[in-house]
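Hi Y.,

Following your request, here is the sequence exactly as I used it, all 445 residues.
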Amino acid sequence: MEASEASKGGGRSAGSGQASNDKHSAGGGFLTHGGHTADGGHAAAAGPEKAEAPAAGRTYRMSTSILVWCALAVVSSLYITIPLTPLFARQFDAPLQAAAWTGSAFSLAYAVGLLLWGTLSDRAGRKPVIVFGLLALAVISPLIGLAGTLPALIALRAVQGLAAASFAPSALAYAAEMYPPGRSVTVVGLITTGFMSAGVAGQIYGSSVAESWGWTYVFYWLGGIYLLSAVWLGGWLPGGTRPRRNERLPDLLRQFGSLLKQKKLQACYLIAATFLLAFVGMYTGLEAVLTRQLGSDQMLLVRAAGLPGVLLSPLAGRLAARFGLRKVLQAGLAMAVIGLASIAGGLMLPAFTLPIVIPMSLMLAAGIAIAIPALIAIIGMLGGEARAIAVTLYTFILFIGATLGPLAVLWTLQTTGRDYAAFVLLTALMLAGWAVSRRLPAPDR
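Below is the corresponding structure, written out as tokens. Let me know if you'd prefer a different format.
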């Protein structure tokens, strides 16, 4: 979901354990099949080129697997408290809106952290920042399980969100710099699919572990997952290009101000704010409404229903090549509107059944999954030379939406006393996003 640049290093080769089997070029790129480096150079001799190509292929596959796994593991932390919110409310004798801050505090800190870590990784290097973030998560996550009060839990979740934000800008910059152009696009798409899949996987993990062992073990085990991920990534992921030291946070903020003055980008950012607001808000609303009616097995099915939808994200590029970016964006928004409107309508019926919520939650997830890459591409085109900064600002706004979604949904449910009211609100917001998308330019395919 984000983009940047990258680092250098002399990391170990993946698959061989020997530095000589998988060399890096002076620019820090992987050696490709055929002896070409990521920056377009050539190996010195024909013999070694052929011997090293298979090792390079293993390095690509291993490195990609590590990055995608970490994308799934790190971003899952945003979603693990969605099914736990009612449990926290009971555990700490607090209103649902207060308990919802266990998720919103994470996403708010995550949004702010994206601005900080992207700049830091320019200076310190991509891989060191990723490893540090994973180790920080390995320490912070078990501490959350020890929290004895709701304020302490919320505060630790905010710290966790700040640490988790280190991964996305660093990993996407690493992929853009360390892989040849043809492969980097594919790898970025796979990492983005990991981010999207986390929206469902995190909920399934959180609810399953909490039901079997208690909510504290959700965070204890998460610490172990992050520690193993840090060891895996630190030991096997090659280094990167030399750290860059030319980007400062004040300069970044000034560029944000300049971009926000552009009306077309303003429209894009308004649309971006609705994506995770609706996605996280929908699952928060379903958790609040359906736990009174459904058993744990049925709720697990509801949470898992969106997974096939988010896996459609890699298809957005092909659809855009055929139909154009704006049409793909509008189609994704329309699918989300239909999904939310159908859930709202189903909740108005005397007997609300799973055959309505499952396909419609899948439709919303699929709509957002294909709309996000299309909007990122449009923002990149409108941003011009400042495209990396424009996409960073998009990501910040995206997670501000994730912060507001649960709060808006639970406030609406409590204020109106109607189960369908929150979904009517989300439908209206997504419909407004679709209307705004009609005013965007139609970029070349």
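The radius of gyration is 22 Å.

Thanks again,
Q.
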